Amino acid sequence: MPMTTPAPLHDADGVHDALIEQNAILCSANQHLLLATFDAEDLRAQAEAANRRQNEFLAMLAHELRNPLAPISMASAMLGRMPAPSTELIHIKTIIDRQVGQLSRLLDDLLDAARISSGKIELHKQALLVAEQLANAVDTVQARVNERRQQLIIEVPDRAIRVFGDGVRLAQVFSNLLVNASKFTPIGGSICLRACVIGNDVVVTVEDDGDGIAADVLPTVFTLFAQGPRTLARSQGGLGIGLNIVRNVVEMHGGSVSAASPGLGHGTIFTVRLPLLEVTDAPLAVVPDTPLPALRHHILLVEDNQDASAMLGMVLCSENHTVIKAFDGVAGLALACTGAFDVVLCDIGLPGMTGYDLVRSLRATLAQAAPFCVAISGYGQLEDRSRALAAGFDEHLVKPMNIDNLLQLVASVPLKTAHAPQSSV
After folding, report:
1. Between the chain's N and C termini, which has fewer beta carbons within 10 Å?
2. Residues with Cβ within 8 Å of residue 60, at least 6 apart in sequence
């Protein structure tokens, strides 16, 4: 039997040393990988924390700016209710309304941009008539178009065309496109809003004969904070948010949006495509407005902002409602629990007790006898509304409120009380 010659001792030592060296290298690599993993986790946590702080800051910013906007908006509403207002007064009211509306839209766009970037936008979809969404968008921009003496041409088929989507968000898409068109179209220019069905898509176009877009700018018009060249006057300024919101909302609906322009000075056309749900030849039904009976409600207003309380009280009293005021949560709850009110309008951020706690305690005390409770708040995100309804509010309105909508809401509430204390306004 042949004998195996053992390996030289020095060769075995070399293999052993090589293995030790390789093991050390692997251990070192593993340590680096582990550290890199920890670093990545730490960076992700920091990014999430920064994003959360940004969203919290934007929400607080919106709240703090909406608070002063609310009494300004209501003061303007009261100017419009004065008997025989002069031409100058009407002009002043128009300016105030326009600027309040612009600031409110900027705040909404900022918050929407933050929610989209963090994936917090939720859609509440249902079958929607395209014509109604376009009409809502036109209502939003009509005053601006009229002021600039622009011609708005609307071409919408008589057929009932429906999509499956979120009505609030789609109206926002079309109003943003119309606002953008009006902004970049000169005084006396033309804007055309069209809708049609092509294949399985609903196609909506917004075309203007305004400034147009340069070829090198077109690819970036839907990018967040992107803006084309502007003059020093900045009369066509903005934050570069509106079109980014348009693209994101449309894509969340399974659609697409594009921009085209022959060049500077030759106008622009934006095209939105959305999946078609159905189309019927039945004419659109026109529902006549049914005026609500003029009921005099007993209202408790809980608002710590003195100016907002004063102006909202004046608006409500101008409709012959009886208004009692409280300026903190504890006093508001004590009054509300007397059962003397049909409606409670309550701010959320109150001294002494939050609006959430107030309405929870009120529901626990009066149960089914509790009045109709409306949250009035500078916090306007979806989760803020959900939290208010979960606490026991019947409705949630965001400052600055549309006064006509508020008055209609109050008018729709059945009377619960036979009498109430004298108005404190």
Report:
1. N
2. none
Residue 270 pairs with which residues in a beta bridge?
206, 259
> What is the rounded distance in angstroms from the CA atom of residue 85 to the CA atom of residue 67?
27
Distance CA 415, CA 395 (A): 17
Residue positions counted in the chain: 425
Output the furthest CA–CA distance in the chain (Å, rounded).
126
Its pTM surpasses 0.85: no
Question: What domains can you pick out in the chain, each with its CATH number?
Answer: 126-227+240-283 (3.30.565.10), 298-411 (3.40.50.2300)
**CA 146/CA 142 separation, integer angstroms:** 6
Q: Extract the runs of DSSP E, i.e. beta strands, from 276-357.
A: 278-283, 298-302, 322-326, 343-347
Q: Which two tokens stand for residue 21?
A: 């060296």
User: CB neighbours of 80 closer than 8 A, spacing ≥ 6?
Assistant: 90, 93
* Cβ neighbours around 263 below 10 Å, total: 12
Q: Do 178 and 269 contact (CB within 8 A), yes or no?
A: no
| pLDDT tens-digit readout, 319-341 | 899 999 999 999 999 999 998 89
Q: Is 322 helix (H, G, I), strand (E, B) or coil?
A: strand
* 17 SS3 class: helix
SS3 content of the chain, % helix, strand, coil (to 5): 50, 20, 35
**CB proximity list for 351: less than 8 A, separation 6 or greater:** 304, 327, 328, 329
Q: Please answer whether residues 349 and 59 qualify as being in contact, where contact means their C-beta atoms are separated by less than 8 angstroms.
A: no
The answer to whether 37 and 30 are in contact (CB under 8 A) is: no
> What does the pLDDT read at residue 99?
80
- Would you tell me how many other CB atoms lie within 10 Å of the CB of residue 266? 12
Contact by Cβ (8 Å): 164, 277: yes
